[in-house]
Request: fold
Amino acid sequence: MSKKNLIIGDQAIAPGETKDIALKVSETYAGTAVNLPVRVIRSKKKGPIVFLTGAVHGDELNGAGIVREIMFNAPSLNNGTLICIPVVNIFGFENHTRYLPDRRDLNRCFPGDTSGSLAFRLARVLYDEIISKSDYGIDLHTASVHKTNFPHLRIDTKVSGLKELALAFGCEIILNKKAPLNSLRGIASQNGCPTLLYEAGEVYKFEPGAIKLGVRGVLNVLSKLDMITLKRIKPAYQTIVKKTTWLRSEVGGLIHFHVHPGDIIKKGSKVASCERLFSRETDTIISPYDGIILGLTTLPAAKPGEPICHLAVPQKPISEIKTETEAQPKTLHRKIQDDLSTNINIRKSKKRT
Ligand SMILES: [Zn+2]
Reply:
């Protein structure tokens, strides 16, 4: 399975060696090299090569936090190789933005092009030097600006081996969704490197719960691949979700929510209320389905048509999911809900789910 002589850039990494590599991806206007920092950790024994990527969108920092935790605190490898890239989009990271300076979304530019734009060239280096040499990948993201995501995985279950890895990762919700065109996970998965995508939290932050669950997930996957020795931790429930829907505001005004990210709700439940600026007149947004709150807007204002809540509609009955959650303690689940709720306008009186 594994490649014997691993060479990344112009560096050979011997079995048993850990090496930091500065992978040249571009140059500044002053002509100095712009390098992508990569850490390669190799066991003496051959085994799978797994890459971890954070901040493909330069403002999505939880992934960088997860990769750093893994680099510093993961148990040593029994076999195989771990390639750690905390920040892929180093240009966006410098400027606190999702995009590259050429205004491209790096995650729509794979597998890249050596004679293309800045984004395509960066994508090509990542593809040639990392993705094409790996057996599996985990790409770590957050919601885009002004939104937050309850932690979940995105995979295409048609890709061989991905469902098993996703279940091992240990998120409650696995979204079965075809990857966007030219995305990292799509191109990697189509080319022999099944890749999971983790979505958790919001931009510009290190969110402790989302990072903790991400670290746990990466370790669970490495354990599933027999690369480390670790008892895998399972969540209270797991559900593969095909259908999601965005609930939108019908009026212009100020939003407050009646739910937290990750709440399990029944059809007909109140999700949010929108009040007029000069009155308490309220428009209420009701859930059209039994579902799980996957994402919420962090903005307290909305106008007609603006998305305010991303709802996952599981195939499994929610009564079954509720029974499963009640059977197990949900300390980390609750911590994550509390973390993610800090920047959302929530007014909730009824019992938390
Ligand atoms: Zn992203």
